[in-house]
UniProtKB/TrEMBL annotation:
MF-aspect GO terms: glutathione transferase activity
Superkingdom of origin: Bacteria
PROSITE patterns per record: GST_CTER (PS50405), GST_NTER (PS50404)
Alphabetized PANTHER family for the sequence: GLUTATHIONE S-TRANSFERASE GSTA (PTHR44051:SF8), GLUTATHIONE S-TRANSFERASE-RELATED (PTHR44051)
Organism: Rhodopseudomonas palustris (strain ATCC BAA-98 / CGA009)
Gene name of the record: gst2
Enzyme Commission code(s) on record: 2.5.1.18
InterPro entries for this protein: Glutathione-S-Trfase_C-like (IPR010987), Glutathione-S-Trfase_C_sf (IPR036282), Glutathione_S-Trfase (IPR040079), Glutathione_S-Trfase_N (IPR004045), GST_C (IPR004046), Thioredoxin-like_sf (IPR036249)
Name of this chain's protein: Glutathione transferase GstA
Organism placement in taxonomy: Bacteria, Pseudomonadati, Pseudomonadota, Alphaproteobacteria, Hyphomicrobiales
Coiled coil: none
UniProt keyword list: Transferase
Length: 203
């Protein structure tokens, strides 16, 4: 498999999933602005959407969209440690979390990366993010992870989004459960390995 990624982007979520799963894969760095691979090839030929992540599969096809990719990785790993079994009530809860993180949290951060966004607009989206962070903080009360006591691919995704709070000067101090959760996931060896390989941690 090949994971097409940009350092620190949402593609870090499937990178963490692959690391946790222990599956073999190659990393292919993408310049998102230029839509080019490091060797100069046109990334649009791989993913016409132009976004990361994309996962090149062993049969030559390409899977896109983070929530779909991480579930594929979890199922490919096969032990059930990263996602509950397909068709189980717990799997639908996992999908509920993945969809919430993708459509509410992730999409609320997107505009903040626009260099021309005005302060009023930034404050609007930061207020929206704060409401979502408050909700997730309450859901984590008494739990180590989103699904309870076990790490899943949804946790890797949420961790990446929470890591953007530092870049956007969003203080997590009002959310003690989230603060502890972020530190807990950051300390996982496989998460550290994925971040280090993207140049996000100093050796």
């Amino acid at each position: 498999m090949k994971l097409y990624y940009s350092p620190g982007a949402c593609s870090l979520s499937p990178h963490i999933a692959l690391s946790e799963a222990g599956l073999p894969f190659d990393l292919v760095k993408v310049d998102i602005r230029a839509k080019k691979l490091e060797n100069g090839d046109d990334y649009a030929a791989i993913n016409p959407k132009g976004s990361v992540p994309a996962l090149g599969l062993d049969d030559g096809s390409v899977l896109t969209e983070g929530p779909a990719i991480v579930q594929y990785i979890a199922d490919k790993e096969g032990s059930g440690k990263l996602a509950p079994a397909n068709g189980s009530p717990e799997r639908y809860r996992l999908q509920e979390w993945l969809n919430y993180i993708s459509t509410d949290l992730h999409k609320s951060f997107g505009p903040l990366f626009a260099p021309t966004l005005g302060d009023d607009a930034k404050n609007f989206f930061k207020d929206r993010i704060a409401r979502h962070l408050g909700y997730v903080d309450k859901q984590l009360a008494g739990k180590d992870y989103l699904m309870g006591s076990s790490f899943t691919v949804a946790d890797g995704y949420l961790f990446v989004i929470l890591s953007w709070c530092d870049r956007m000067q969003i203080d997590l101090a009002p959310y003690p459960n989230l603060t502890a959760y972020k530190a807990r996931i950051a300390a996982r060896p496989k998460v550290q390995a994925a971040m280090q390989s993207e140049g996000l941690l100093q050796v």
